[in-house]
Design a protein that fits this description.
Elements lengths: L5 H43 L4 H18 L4 H25 L7
Helix pairs in contact: 1-2, 1-3, 2-3
């Protein structure tokens, strides 16, 4: 039997509790990151309908796909971001066909 002082026991317990907290926080951070990606894809897809759709559309599609792949809890928002990203590219394609150029103007 090994005798330890109360201070050594508290340090060992504190170290274990800290380790558990760090390990438990890791998956939660991944979910929060994917939730942020879902929201960002929605916002960028929505903004892309108005300006810079050649840049913001593909970014919204990639962010939405990554968020869905990681298992976001905001699945609906990620799907909306994906749809808006595709709509950005379709709007760009339609405006390019009307103006016969890559850039478009009103």
């Amino acid at each position: 039997m090994r005798l330890t002082s109360p201070a050594a026991h508290r340090t060992a317990t504190h170290r274990t509790a800290t380790h558990r907290t760090a390990v438990d926080a890791r998956p939660r951070t991944a979910v929060q990151d994917s939730d942020g990606m879902a929201v960002a894809s929605f916002v960028l897809g929505l903004l892309g309908l108005l300006v810079l759709n050649i840049v913001l559309g593909p970014i919204a599609i990639v962010l939405a796909g990554t968020a869905l792949w990681r298992g976001t809890t905001r699945r609906g928002r990620a799907c909306l971001g994906l749809g808006l990203g595709i709509a950005d590219l379709l709007v760009l394609l339609a405006l390019m066909q009307m103006n016969d150029t890559i850039s478009w103007s009103f």
